[in-house]
Specification:
This protein is an all-alpha fold. Helices cover about 75% and strands about 0% of the residues. The longest helix is centred in the last third of the chain and has 28 residues.
Length: about 140
Protein backbone atom coordinates (compact mmCIF):
# COMPACT_ATOMS: atom_id res chain seq x y z
CA UNK A 1 0.00 0.00 0.00
CA UNK A 2 1.54 3.35 -1.00
CA UNK A 3 2.35 5.78 1.78
CA UNK A 4 2.65 9.52 1.44
CA UNK A 5 5.29 11.40 3.37
CA UNK A 6 4.45 14.41 5.50
CA UNK A 7 6.90 17.04 6.62
CA UNK A 8 5.77 18.57 9.89
CA UNK A 9 8.68 21.02 9.90
CA UNK A 10 7.02 23.06 7.13
CA UNK A 11 3.64 23.25 8.83
CA UNK A 12 2.11 25.21 11.63
CA UNK A 13 1.16 22.62 14.29
CA UNK A 14 -2.35 24.02 14.73
CA UNK A 15 -3.00 24.08 10.99
CA UNK A 16 -1.68 20.53 10.68
CA UNK A 17 -3.95 19.34 13.51
CA UNK A 18 -6.95 21.07 11.96
CA UNK A 19 -6.18 19.48 8.59
CA UNK A 20 -5.84 16.04 10.18
CA UNK A 21 -9.24 16.33 11.83
CA UNK A 22 -10.90 17.53 8.63
CA UNK A 23 -9.27 14.75 6.61
CA UNK A 24 -10.19 11.97 9.04
CA UNK A 25 -13.83 12.99 8.97
CA UNK A 26 -13.80 12.94 5.18
CA UNK A 27 -11.98 9.59 5.11
CA UNK A 28 -14.53 8.04 7.48
CA UNK A 29 -17.37 9.35 5.34
CA UNK A 30 -15.73 7.78 2.26
CA UNK A 31 -14.82 4.55 4.10
CA UNK A 32 -11.15 5.21 3.25
CA UNK A 33 -8.89 3.30 5.66
CA UNK A 34 -5.70 4.68 4.09
CA UNK A 35 -7.04 8.21 4.51
CA UNK A 36 -7.84 7.50 8.17
CA UNK A 37 -4.32 6.19 8.74
CA UNK A 38 -2.75 9.19 7.01
CA UNK A 39 -4.88 11.64 9.01
CA UNK A 40 -3.83 9.85 12.20
CA UNK A 41 -0.19 10.25 11.23
CA UNK A 42 -0.74 13.94 10.59
CA UNK A 43 -2.08 14.17 14.13
CA UNK A 44 1.14 12.66 15.45
CA UNK A 45 3.16 15.00 13.26
CA UNK A 46 1.22 17.99 14.62
CA UNK A 47 2.16 17.01 18.17
CA UNK A 48 5.77 16.48 17.09
CA UNK A 49 5.76 19.85 15.33
CA UNK A 50 4.75 21.58 18.57
CA UNK A 51 7.95 20.32 20.19
CA UNK A 52 10.03 21.29 17.15
CA UNK A 53 8.59 24.83 17.06
CA UNK A 54 8.94 25.22 20.84
CA UNK A 55 12.56 24.09 20.72
CA UNK A 56 13.37 26.61 18.00
CA UNK A 57 11.55 29.46 19.78
CA UNK A 58 13.14 28.64 23.15
CA UNK A 59 16.63 28.31 21.63
CA UNK A 60 16.86 24.63 22.48
CA UNK A 61 18.48 21.89 20.42
CA UNK A 62 16.10 20.44 17.83
CA UNK A 63 14.59 17.37 19.46
CA UNK A 64 15.42 14.04 17.89
CA UNK A 65 13.09 11.29 18.94
CA UNK A 66 10.11 10.91 21.20
CA UNK A 67 11.87 11.34 24.54
CA UNK A 68 13.57 14.54 23.44
CA UNK A 69 10.27 15.95 22.18
CA UNK A 70 8.58 15.13 25.45
CA UNK A 71 11.41 16.86 27.32
CA UNK A 72 10.90 20.01 25.22
CA UNK A 73 7.18 19.96 26.04
CA UNK A 74 8.03 19.73 29.75
CA UNK A 75 10.33 22.76 29.38
CA UNK A 76 7.61 24.63 27.52
CA UNK A 77 5.12 23.94 30.30
CA UNK A 78 7.60 25.05 32.94
CA UNK A 79 8.48 28.23 31.06
CA UNK A 80 4.79 29.09 30.54
CA UNK A 81 3.94 28.41 34.17
CA UNK A 82 1.51 25.57 33.50
CA UNK A 83 1.27 22.12 35.06
CA UNK A 84 4.36 20.16 33.91
CA UNK A 85 2.38 17.21 32.63
CA UNK A 86 -0.31 19.19 30.81
CA UNK A 87 0.79 18.03 27.34
CA UNK A 88 1.83 14.47 28.24
CA UNK A 89 -1.52 12.61 27.87
CA UNK A 90 -2.09 13.86 24.33
CA UNK A 91 1.56 13.38 23.37
CA UNK A 92 1.49 9.80 24.62
CA UNK A 93 -1.84 8.98 23.00
CA UNK A 94 -0.74 10.47 19.70
CA UNK A 95 2.49 8.49 19.81
CA UNK A 96 1.00 5.18 20.90
CA UNK A 97 -2.40 5.18 19.22
CA UNK A 98 -2.28 7.53 16.23
CA UNK A 99 1.30 6.85 15.16
CA UNK A 100 1.79 3.33 16.46
CA UNK A 101 -1.44 1.41 16.49
CA UNK A 102 -3.35 3.25 13.77
CA UNK A 103 -0.71 4.31 11.26
CA UNK A 104 1.83 1.51 11.61
CA UNK A 105 -0.32 -1.40 12.77
CA UNK A 106 -3.46 -0.49 10.79
CA UNK A 107 -5.53 -1.24 13.89
CA UNK A 108 -7.94 1.52 14.83
CA UNK A 109 -11.39 2.50 15.99
CA UNK A 110 -12.76 5.41 13.96
CA UNK A 111 -14.40 7.14 16.92
CA UNK A 112 -11.20 6.86 18.96
CA UNK A 113 -9.15 8.36 16.13
CA UNK A 114 -11.54 11.30 15.79
CA UNK A 115 -11.53 11.85 19.56
CA UNK A 116 -7.75 11.77 19.73
CA UNK A 117 -7.43 14.15 16.79
CA UNK A 118 -9.78 16.53 18.61
CA UNK A 119 -7.47 16.24 21.62
CA UNK A 120 -4.49 16.94 19.35
CA UNK A 121 -6.26 20.00 17.99
CA UNK A 122 -6.84 21.28 21.55
CA UNK A 123 -3.29 20.42 22.65
CA UNK A 124 -1.65 22.21 19.72
CA UNK A 125 -3.70 25.34 20.40
CA UNK A 126 -2.87 25.21 24.12
CA UNK A 127 0.81 24.57 23.48
CA UNK A 128 1.15 27.44 21.02
CA UNK A 129 -0.64 29.74 23.51
CA UNK A 130 1.79 28.53 26.19
CA UNK A 131 4.69 29.30 23.88
CA UNK A 132 3.41 32.86 23.40
CA UNK A 133 3.12 33.28 27.20
CA UNK A 134 6.59 31.89 27.66
CA UNK A 135 8.06 34.29 25.12
CA UNK A 136 6.39 37.25 26.88
CA UNK A 137 7.97 36.18 30.18
CA UNK A 138 11.47 36.12 28.76
Amino acid sequence: MPRRRFDAADDDPVALANRALKEVRKAIEEDDDVGIREAAEKGWLAVSAVADVAAAELNLKKPEGRNARQAVLLKLADCAGVRPTVFRPTFTAARDVLHGRCFHDNNFDEAEVVGLLEDVQDMTEQAMAALRRCKRRR
